[in-house]
UniProtKB/TrEMBL annotation:
It comes from Pontibacter qinzhouensis. One of its GO terms (biological process) is translation. Binds together with bS18 to 16S ribosomal RNA. This is Small ribosomal subunit protein bS6. It comes from the Bacteria. GO terms for molecular function: small ribosomal subunit rRNA binding; structural constituent of ribosome. Belongs to the bacterial ribosomal protein bS6 family. CDD domains: bS6 (cd00473). GO terms for cellular component: cytoplasm; ribonucleoprotein complex; ribosome. SUPFAM superfamilies: Ribosomal protein S6.
Amino acid sequence: MELKNYETIFILTPLLNEVQMQETVEKFRQVLKENSADIIHEENWGLRKLAYPIQKKSTGFYHLIEFAAPTTVVDALELAYRRDEKVVRFLTTALDKHALAYNERRRKGEFKSQAKKEEVKAS
C-alpha cells in the first residue's frame, strides 16, 4: 500500500485545561496509529488568537501533526474531528515534494537562523 505524506492542523476550544487538551491530542494520535500511519513530526503551538471568532470564541489551542499514511486514513481522522465537540476547526492537506523539503528545513531551524542573520546585518 502506497503511503502519502499529510499535514493536519486542528484547533481545540480554549475552554479545555492542559490535561484535557493533551488527552484530546492523544486521541487523534491514536486514530492515526490504529490506521497504520507513521507520525513524522508534531508541534503544539499553544493558545493563539483566531483570525475571526468561531462559535463565539476568539482563541484556541493549535496543534500540528505531520504523518505518512495510506489515503484512507484521512477520512477516518476527519470523521474523528467532526465527532469531537472540542475541535473548533481542522485542515488536512497532502504534501508534495516541495512541501516536504520546506518542512524538513523548517524543523532544522534554517529559517530562524536566516532571520537572525538579517537582524544582525540591519543593525
